[in-house]
Design a protein that fits this description.
mainly beta, globular, 42% strand
Length: 101
């Protein structure tokens, strides 16, 4: 059973990451959307990813892992601004919602 989120989703992007780390802006969110966001819900399809929230690019072996077919919520505006994501092996597809509240 999924977690019920009380925050309001206001922006959505579907994108891919591979061997180069990407920010949420690289994945299509605008600067204004990122400023408004309090958190992001990230769902990973098929391939695992790693992420860092300190504006440093993760690698395939360094960073917080999210397994394939898992969902993670990242909270905090500065964490979202600094978030960098990379695939652990081959290209990973992400479904990302930005949330307020």
């Amino acid at each position: 059973m999924g977690t019920i989120v009380s925050a309001r989703a206001f922006a959505f992007q579907s994108g891919t990451v591979a061997g180069t780390a990407k920010s949420l802006a690289d994945l299509g969110f605008t600067e204004d959307q990122l400023k408004q966001a309090d958190s992001a819900k990230i769902s990973v399809e098929a391939q695992a990813i790693r992420y860092r929230m300190d504006a440093v690019a993760p690698t395939a072996s360094v960073g917080h892992p999210i397994a394939a077919n898992a969902t993670e919520t990242i909270a905090g505006g500065s964490n979202l601004k600094n978030l960098r994501i990379i695939a652990q092996t081959s290209t990973a597809t992400l479904q990302i919602s930005l949330l307020q509240g």
